[in-house]
Model the fold of this input.
Amino acid sequence: MHNIKGFIFDLDGVLVDTAKYHYLAWRRLAEELNIDFSLRDNERLKGVSRMQSLEIILEIGNITLNDATKIELAQKKNNWYVEYISKLTPEDILPGVIGFLESVRDNGIKVALGSASKNSMLILDKLNLTNYFDAIIDGTKVSKAKPNPEVFLKGAEALNLLPNQCIVFEDAEAGVEAAINAGMYCIGIGSKDVLKKAHLVLSGFYNMTFDKLEL
Ligand code: BG6
Ligand code: MG
Done:
C-alpha cells in the first residue's frame, strides 16, 4: 500500500457519535406507531439511508404505508433529529479525531467525507470540521445507498484519485461492504466481531497518527 494518497471518512459513528440521536428520533417515531424498536434493531440502521431506515422499522412493526405517509414520517423523524444535533459542539468530536486528521494532512494525504447523511454539512459546521476536508460527498450527492460503492467512488473522483489509492474509514457493516465494493482498502472503526469484512479494525482514533498505520 505505498500508493495511498487519499483517506475517505464516514461521518456518523466515525468522527462523531450521532448514532444515539438517530436512535432517539427513530424510537420516538416507533413509539408513535406502536412499534417495539430496540437498540439491537438500531444496528441495522447504521450507514443506511433515511428512507431505508424507515422501511426497516416498518418491517419490524409489520406495517405497510403509502409513499406520501412514509415521506411525512421520515420528515418528522428528521425534524426531531435536527433538533437533537443542533446542540452538537466541537466537544462531541470523537476522541483522537482532530489529531489524526491533522497528522494525515501533514503527510500530504487528501481527505474526503463519504456519508449517507443529508445533514452532513450541518454536523461538520457544528463540529468546526468542514475545513479539514478537500471534498465532501454526502447524502445530497448520491442516489444509491451503501453497500453500493457510489459514495466512495465519487469521493475518490472528487479527490482526483483512483479507488486503489484511497482508504475508507467506516463503522457500519453496510459501509465496509460499500468500500470493498469500491475496490478500496477499508479500516473499520469499532469492533472486529461486527466489522468482519474490514481489512483492519481500530477501536477508534484515540492516540492514533498517520505513522502508526504503517502503510
Ligand atoms: C448515516 C447513518 O450516516 O446517515 C444512518 O449511519 C442514517 O443511520 C443516514 O440513516 C442518513 O442520515 P440523514 O441525516 O440523512 O437522515
Ligand atoms: Mg457511520
